[in-house]
Amino acid sequence: MYPVFADVRPETAERQLTLGTDISAPGDFRPEPLPKAERTARIGDYTVKLTGDLVPGKSSRLTLSVSRAGRPAGDRPSALPGGLRAPGGPRDHDHG
Question: Region (Disordered) spans which residues (predicted)?
């Protein structure tokens, strides 16, 4: 079992929330080096771009922009991990 935590502050919340759960990962563990950190990822026709920086001890604004073939993507699933939803454009989230 592995504990997983995420500190978030939804726009409508008065204070930060800490979400947590335990996850299991069946099978043999074979550690591998992490890939180089990138701000842009491409999967098929989709491109996801991260802008903003996390600042320890302070609130930070991150923006994820999803596009398909160079245009804002409006055809992706309506509920992405973490509740991220932004049909047709970027979605900002404050973390801190």
Answer: 57-96
Q: Which two tokens stand for residue 52?
A: 């903003």
Q: Which two tokens stand for residue 5?
A: 């935590």
Bridge partners of 60, per DSSP, are 95
Distance CA 21, CA 5 (A): 7
Q: How far apart are CA 83 and CA 59, in angstroms?
A: 19
- At 63-89, the pLDDT tens digits run 888 999 888 886 545 444 444 444 444
pLDDT tens digit sequence for 21-43? 999 888 888 889 988 989 999 98
Asked, for residue 31, whether it belongs to a domain, the answer is no
Q: Which residue has the tokens 């604004």?
A: 61
Q: Is-above-0.85 flag for pTM?
A: no
Helix (H, G, I), strand (E, B) or coil at 82: helix
Residue 56 resides in a domain? yes
The β-bridge partners of 42 are 47
